[in-house]
Amino acid sequence: MANLGTKTATNAVARTRVWAIAAWASLGWALFTLTILHLVSSFDPLADPLSRYAFSDHGGGMLEASLLSFAVGVIAVRGALLASGITFPRTTSVLIYATATGLVGAALFPATFTPEIDPVSGRIHQYASLIAFLCLPAIAFSLLDRFKEVPGLTPSRVMLVRLLWIGLASLGLFGVSYVADALPTTPAITTIMTLLPVGFTQRIVFVVDFLLLAALLVTAIRTARLQQTDGR
Questions:
Q1: pTM for the full model?
Q2: Is the pLDDT of residue 2 over 60?
Q3: Nearest-angstrom CA–CA distance, 219 and 150
Q4: Burial of 227 (0-12, 13-18, 19+ CB in 10 A)
Q5: Residue 16: which domain range?
Q6: Where would you find the membrane-spanning parts of this chain (predicted)?
Q7: Confidence of residue 75 (pLDDT cuts 50, 70, 90)
């Protein structure tokens, strides 16, 4: 029976590793593509939101490819968590699929930055992005209680809590800058836009989201290894 438990734990580690590699590859490609797009585009990364890069003079299609790869990475993170033995409520799965769907929607429906883009497409892009931005940190939040039940995951839980606080702060800053960018120009609005350019705050949110997913992957791998150790 002990050998059976050890074999099961070893299989869990192997399955988790496969999903983790898929997730790292997808998320890494998304980040790499975005980095290259910023290098070849003439847009201002501080002032221009990511959505505008779909209309870049160079690197056409790279933003869409990055968002789609990011969506695949989110699904792969779910696979790694499940393979490691972490059980989570249906709410977490709904949040994961909502995040991936939001990213896909944002990729397929460009924002309305040029006259030829249908305003409906712009609305879909806006709401899809909002869903992704809000649901991704909620995924980590929904798993905190699960991680609390495992003593060996205390460092991972502490790391996630810290990232969540940073994520909430960055979302708040992005919300302020996004609203300010949409309002008529006044001295106060100009000050806000100078201190909190929408492109900069949006990229902070994106980086924190990437770090949250990376933290979840680390937690999945750690969980699988803990089970392997306990099975010996």
A1: 0.89
A2: no
A3: 11
A4: buried
A5: 2-230
A6: 21-41, 61-82, 94-113, 125-147, 159-180, 200-221
A7: very high
